Amino acid sequence: MNNQGDSPLERLKAAAREAPRLPGVYLWKDEDAQIIYIGKAKSLRDRLGSYFSGAKDIKTATLVRHARTIETIIVASEYEALLLENTLIKQHSPRYNINLKDGKTYPVIRITHEDFPRIFRTRRIIEDKSLYFGPFPDLQKVDAMLELIDKLFPLRKCKTFHTKPGPCMYYHIDRCKAPCCGKINAGEYRRHVERVQRLLAGETGPLIADLTEKMHEAAKALDFERAAQIRNAIRAIEDLAGEDSAVVDFDSEGRDYIAWAAEGVLATFTVFSMRGGKMTGRELYRARSAADEAESLELFITSYYNPSRPPPAKIFLQPVAYDGTALKDWFKSQFDSGPEITQSAEKRHTAILAMARQNAQEDLRGRLRERGAGPALDELAAVLGLERRPERIEGFDISQLDGKYPVASLVSFRNGGPDKKNYRYFRLRSVIGVVDDFAAMREAVQRRYSRLVREGRDLPDLVLIDGGIGQVNAASGALASLGLDTAVVGLAKREEELWLPHAREPIVLPRRSEALKVLQFVRDETHRFATNFNQRLRSKDLRFPALESVEGIGRQRAAAIMKAYESIEAIAGAAPAEIAERCRISQAAARAVRAAAALALEDRKSVQQRMTAKSRRQTSTGAALAAEAAEEYRTSE
After folding, report:
1. Nearest 5°: phi and psi at 278?
2. CB count, 10 Å around CB of 432?
3. Whole-number Å distance between alpha carbons of 605 and 597
4. Which end of the chain has the smaller Cβ count within 10 Å, N or C?
5. Per-residue confidence at 615, pLDDT binned at 50, 70, 90?
6. Which residues are within 8 A (CB) of 606 and not within 5 positions of it... i.e. 6 or more apart?
């Protein structure tokens, strides 16, 4: 017997909570998996959540009562969602969609296929080689664009072209070039039409630049009414131009767009199908595969297409290192002639592939949430030879700038996810003025775990170091000095190699390894955390005490000088006359600033020498251990 958490209503609420905050279309399905309602949303999560909050009308209550699942299709914008919703409602005729059953379509702009074409809006698509742009959900914007075109490129208005002895009224009010009576030849008229085509296709840059120049000229001439008209024309162009759709394109050729997302052995494939110039829907397929990307793609495609579902004329794939030769041979053997398989860079095709990939990624994220990190942690335990699954991982990274502002970050992960309440920063003391990542790592590890031991708190199952064998050995030595045998591993950025303490060779995992993905997640989070703190420290150091010690140089003036020269070294090496001119201070103040900078450099050098000596004393034990390990390695060789 299902508990309340397993009830259909609770499952629907869970689906709404997990929906992305992205524009798209949602489909409610009943217990027979039939679509009973289709809607669109600017934010899928917010819209679906509204079905389960507050009092509902009878229609909504009935819909929720009969629904069993919710499916979402992510698109690029609310505009795309509106068009796709319209297409899918016409295709499926859901029983609870009553508002669009009149078969209404959105208007398009048509350029007729004639020697002297007309331009007008229509809701009918006629296969007569006319050009179509749109569709446009906003009728007012369409009319505004057509009015603009009429002013900028006055083309003919008559429905049927006839030769006439003289022009009509439209010619005299500058709304037609009068091709009917030879006032413009076919070539010049065609150039006007081509400019309109470029405008409707989104190539607005040259036109906007030209109109902007004319607007400024009108304003200089105090013709503000004309300037305002041109300004409104520019806004209309920016609003409408290029608002072409990825879900409707009037290309009648059948096409499939295949994209995918993979994490470890999990993969989700998405197929967006275009038939008759319209997107007819989306299909998601979940797979488990240890094969590489190209092999997984081949397996999916050869499973997806069959005699009852033959391939269309073209198949578009997201970018992948794959030549498609094997698939072409397979299609030829199965269907006599195969489709064209391509990775087009054309805008309209990449837009659909981007939507398909986004849908695949969203589904994959849901699968990963459902499954959890258990399998990845089990793999990690096996790879590193751990006795148990590393459910708690702590990661360290060092961040500094030429020995200045040295900090260490500590991040904590539980069961593969960030445990942010246990993140920590360490402002390092032993490496101020010196660049010594090994000493910095030793200090951070010692400070962290000496405190945990002192307070009797739990230790992590695994410590991850952002770095190679040197940093790993430094961290391992610090843990050993505390009497701890906690497992340590390093992740080196360049080749993503894993280093264990005193190892001779790294462990190299496949790039799709889930264990590697977990460690990369921890490493990237430590780096982000350390870098953010380091930048905050640097941003706070705006007083520049060395410069402010000069009489007449306050905080703001010191900051301006540092902005001009960027470093104390640059100030100390500059001529006083240059400093005075560049920073707009007196010659006397410039000489004093230069002297203060030189003195600050001397102080820094002295501090560095003291810190280096201290670091050497602290690292003597570690160096002896390293020498002993090296000698053991040479002996074993």
Report:
1. -130, 145
2. 19
3. 12
4. N
5. very low
6. none
Contacts of residues 155-163 at CB distance under 8 Å and 24 or more positions apart, as own/partner, are: 155/116, 155/117, 155/118, 155/119, 155/189, 155/192, 155/193, 155/196, 156/116, 156/118, 156/180, 157/118, 158/118, 159/118, 161/114, 161/115, 161/116
What are 373's two structure tokens?
Answer: 């990190």
- Token output for 432: 């101020």
DSSP 452: H
Structure token pair of residue 388 = 């148990």
Helix (H) or strand (E) holding 212: helix 205-220
Q: Which of 566, 568, 564 is nearest to 579 (CA)?
A: 564
CA distances from 242 to 40, 78, 168, 382 (A): 22, 15, 33, 54
Among positive and negative, which fits the CA dihedral 207, 210, 212, 214?
Answer: negative
For position 535, what pLDDT does the model report? Answer: 54
Q: Which residue has the higher pLDDT, 627 or 579?
A: 579
User: Would you state the structure tokens that stand for residue 328, as one six-digit string?
Assistant: 């072409």
* 433: CB partners within 8 A, 6+ apart: 403, 404, 604, 607, 608, 611, 612
- Percent helix / strand / coil, the chain, rounded to 5: 50, 20, 35
On whether the CB atoms of residues 86 and 105 are closer than 8 A, the answer is yes
Alpha helix locations (H) across 280-427? 293-304, 325-335, 347-371, 374-384
